[in-house]
Amino acid sequence: MTCAEFLDRYTDFRDGLIAAPREIRRFERHLACCPACRRYDTAVRRGVRALQAVETIEPSPDFRRRLEARLAQERRALVEVPASAGIAAALFVAAALALLALEGVRRPEVARVHALPPVPFPKPVAHAGVPFVSFQDPRASVVTGNPSPYGTALVEPASAGR
Amino acid sequence: MRAALKRKTQPAVTARALEREALHELDDGQVVLEHLAGDHQAFGALVDRYQTRLLNFINRTIGDRERAEDLVQEVFIRVFRHLHRFDQTKKFSTWIYTIASNLAKNELRNRSRNPLVLFQTIKKHWEADHRPLQFEDATARPDDLYRKRYLKEAVDQCVGQLPDHHRAVFVLRELEGKSYAEIADITGCNLGTVKSRLNRARNSFAQLIEPLLE
């Protein structure tokens, strides 16, 4: 095992995530042979032990009193909110009912739609061939006002007799 | 008369103490359910469990004890407001630590934008640390006192010198004992990022602490 691999996978080794016994032995062999990595491992372990041994700080004596005062305010606010929420809900329902009633009374105007012209249906052909496809020059189509500037594909049915 | 009054009040106090005792036996999820069911002592049980842990976590992350207390208070207020929306299928500790971590991150972000706040924090700690050794434990030997105090300051400084996002992951893993998945949830990163930051944090920590341990 190289030092680069050891350092790269050190987190897994330290946190016990290396399950394979062969892999664990590789790490242990490297630690036994490499003074630099051994120093590194020792520094991390001793440093963390020293950190864990540092006394934990406790909250100040008035911490709980201040917190209880704030929680009491929150509890009072919770009691007031449901009353106002009920009034708002009632107003909302009343407005919704009023709108429904208004829509029911009004008669909407039905727009008259003009009849569309009949669409000519092409006559069926007994022996239909392959349609002829040609392409118009896109430059010409821009001049003549074609909305599609990328050219137009013209498809003529086989019955056109080309 | 006094004895009768005393006898009258004692059962109420004992019942309250028994209720509190019973709450301490429950896990976090059950205490949350008790609170939502209307038990006024249940939230206090959660505060008892987490106040010290959160204070130490936030203090280590932001390096300011007084401000850390304010943030811990803010954590509990937010928990109180949103506990009814807490997903009972998730771990409560992950949720509360996520709130704490976000508040600590915001605090650090605000500080980096305001140099005056940072200067005042450094100045406050500078004065507080410079107290004469003779007022400490008189029964311990002077060199032991010095070594303990020196080591305490040294490891604290080393942790304080880690980049903010590395420090949070390092503290959650090494001091709070959180798993990678929990750290990922708390910090809002994926597992790969947690491992990478933890590795870098350990590298930096080892480089800083090694000369001081000799």
Q: What topology does this entry show?
A:
The complex is a heterodimer of chains A (162) and B (214).
Chain A: H1 3-8, H2 10-14, H3 21-33, H4 35-53, H5 63-105, E1 132-136, H6 138-143, E2 152-156
Helix pairs in contact in A: 3-4
Chain B: H1 2-25, H2 28-36, H3 40-62, H4 65-82, H5 92-113, H6 115-129, H7 142-161, H8 164-174, H9 180-187, H10 191-213
Structure description:
- The complex is a heterodimer of chains A (162) and B (214).
- Chain A is built from 6 helices and 2 strands; from the N terminus they run αααααβαβ.
- With 162 residues, chain A is mostly helical.
- A two-stranded antiparallel ribbon of chain A has the order 1-2.
- In chain A, helix 3 packs across helix 4 (35-53).
- Helix content of chain B is 81%, strand content 0%.
- Chain B has 214 residues and is mainly α.
- The longest helix of chain B is centred in the first third of the chain and has 24 residues, at 2-25.
- Chain B folds into 2 domains: 1-116, RNA polymerase sigma factor, region 2, helix turn helix motif (Rna Polymerase Sigma Factor, Chain: A, Orthogonal Bundle), CATH 1.10.1740.10; 131-214, Winged helix-like DNA-binding domain superfamily/Winged helix DNA-binding domain (Arc Repressor Mutant, subunit A), CATH 1.10.10.
- Chain B has helices spanning 2-25, 28-36, 40-62, 65-82, 92-113, 115-129, 142-161, 164-174, 180-187, 191-213.
- Chains A and B meet through helix 2, helix 4 and helix 5 of A and helix 3, helix 4, helix 7 and helix 10 of B.
Key attributes of the depicted protein:
heterodimer; A: 162 residues; mainly alpha; two-stranded antiparallel sheet; B: 214 residues; Rna Polymerase Sigma Factor, Chain: A; 2 domains
Number of separate structural domains of chain B: 2
What is the ordering of alpha helices and beta strands of chain B?
HHHHHHHHHH
The rough form of chain A would be described as flat
Fraction of residues in H or I helices of chain A: 55-70%
- Average pLDDT of chain B, rounded to a whole number, is 81
CATH H-level superfamily of the largest domain in chain B:
RNA polymerase sigma factor, region 2, helix turn helix motif
Largest interface comes to: A-B, 31 and 37 residues
Series of H and E elements of chain A? HHHHHEHE
Percent strand of chain A: 5-15%
Give the strand order of the largest sheet of chain A, numbering strands 1, 2, ... along the chain.
1-2
Main β-sheet description of chain B = none
Assign the structural class of chain B, choosing from mainly alpha, mainly beta, alpha/beta, alpha+beta, or little secondary structure: mainly alpha
How many DSSP-defined strands of chain B?
A: 0
Oligomer: heterodimer
CATH level 1 name of the largest domain in chain B: Mainly Alpha
Sequence stretches where pLDDT stays below 50 over 5 or more residues of chain A: none
Low-pLDDT windows of residues of chain B: 125-138
What is the CATH architecture descriptor of the largest domain in chain B?
Orthogonal Bundle
User: What is Rg of chain A?
Assistant: 42 Å
Q: Indicate the radius of gyration of chain B in whole angstroms.
A: 21 Å
Helix content of chain B: over 70%
